[in-house]
Specification:
Shape: globular
Strand content: 15-25%
Pfam family, one: ABC_tran
CATH class of the domain at 26-118 and 188-273: Alpha Beta
Protein name: Phosphate ABC transporter ATP-binding protein
Number of helices: 10
GO molecular function: ATP binding; ATP hydrolysis activity; phosphate transmembrane transporter activity
GO biological process, one term: phosphate ion transmembrane transport
Domain ABC transporter: 28-272
Order of helices and strands: EEEHEEHEHHHHEHEHEEHH
Bound molecules: adenosine-5'-triphosphate
Distance between the termini: 43 Å
Radius of gyration: 18 Å
Number of strands: 10
CATH topology of the domain at 26-118 and 188-273: Rossmann fold
């Protein structure tokens, strides 16, 4: 295991072809990223620099490769046997796809929250403690569980039933529990793949509020179909499109207010105004 290659080393990578919000610190960056599923070219040549401790939204029509790109940020595509990734994903200046990099360590540093809340069929406490236990956490577990649940704005609702089964929580509470589970291992980046799509509007707003709090400490990258959500929560927006071969690519990237009010690309404008997709 060569986890040393992922050692924290904040730096900014300039590159003529890299779409980038500058001059903020970079959390993670793709260079020449291409993804294939067997022979299907799903995503082509994505150059995307993600700003640290900001919320970046990835939007675009169905099938344009948003989830595929998101999964490259913590090597989740490794778990799909037909997926092949080319290009680089630089985290602290090191390619997480380089030989010798441990994907488990990558996923500890870059956590993920999925579309459908997926707590384990265990107690609330055990759900939060799980990752820390696996990582051999030696500190005060009660403290870590409380801190993580507070961080996920769930503590007050569950503090009296920590040892009840997590599956008894509402969908919105389960999703916040999944966020607590993600932050318990102290990641630097949290990837969110449509985290609110299974939630009602009130639970959705609670997660959005939570994201705005979490971004003080974490970099958040969210895939969303919900334009209003992207506009409400994100600092930067990356708009993806598909070409005639259904291959996804990054069409426009910039500050969210610019993308939503003064898009440079006609396709972006059509998409955000609902004329496409
Ligand atoms: N496991 C897989 N095997 C084969 N093809 C896949 C797989 N996952 C995704 N694809 C294909 O890759 C392309 C990009 O899919 P992806 O799920 O990344 O898009 P998306 O923009 O997130 O879509 P949606 O908004 O519908 O979730 C699509 O054409 C999809 O069918």
């Amino acid at each position: 295991m060569t986890t040393n290659v992922l050692t924290r080393r904040p730096e900014i990578h300039a590159g003529p072809q890299v779409a980038a919000p500058e001059p903020t610190e970079t959390a993670i960056e793709t260079r020449g990223l291409n993804v294939y599923y067997d022979k299907f070219h799903a995503v082509r040549d994505v150059n995307l620099r993600i700003a640290a401790r900001k919320i970046t939204a990835m939007i675009g029509p169905s099938g344009c490769g948003k989830s595929t790109v998101l999964r490259c940020f913590n090597r989740m595509n490794d778990l799909i046997p037909t997926a092949r990734v080319e290009g680089e994903v630089l985290f602290h200046g090191h390619n997480i796809y380089a030989p010798g990099v441990d994907p488990v360590e990558v996923r500890r540093r870059i956590g993920m929250v999925f579309q459908k809340p997926n707590p384990f069929p265990k107690s609330i406490y055990e759900n939060v403690a799980w990752g820390a236990r696996i990582n051999g956490f030696q500190g005060d577990m009660d403290e870590l569980v409380e801190e993580s649940l507070r961080g996920a704005a769930l503590w007050d609702e569950v503090k009296d039933k920590l040892h009840q089964n997590a599956l008894g929580l509402s969908g919105g509470q389960q999703q916040r529990l999944c966020i607590a589970r993600a932050i318990a291992v102290k990641p630097e980046i949290i990837l969110m793949d449509e985290p609110c799509s299974a939630l009602d509007p009130i639970a959705t707003l609670a997660i959005e509020d939570l994201m705005k709090e979490l971004v003080a400490s974490y970099t958040i990258i969210i895939v969303t179909h919900n334009m209003q959500q992207a506009a409400r929560v994100s600092d930067f927006t990356a708009f993806f499109m598909v070409d005639e071969r259904r291959t996804g690519h990054l069409a426009e990237y910039g500050p969210t207010d610019q993308i939503f009010t003064r898009p440079k690309n006609k396709a972006t404008e059509d998409y955000i105004t609902g004329r496409f997709g």
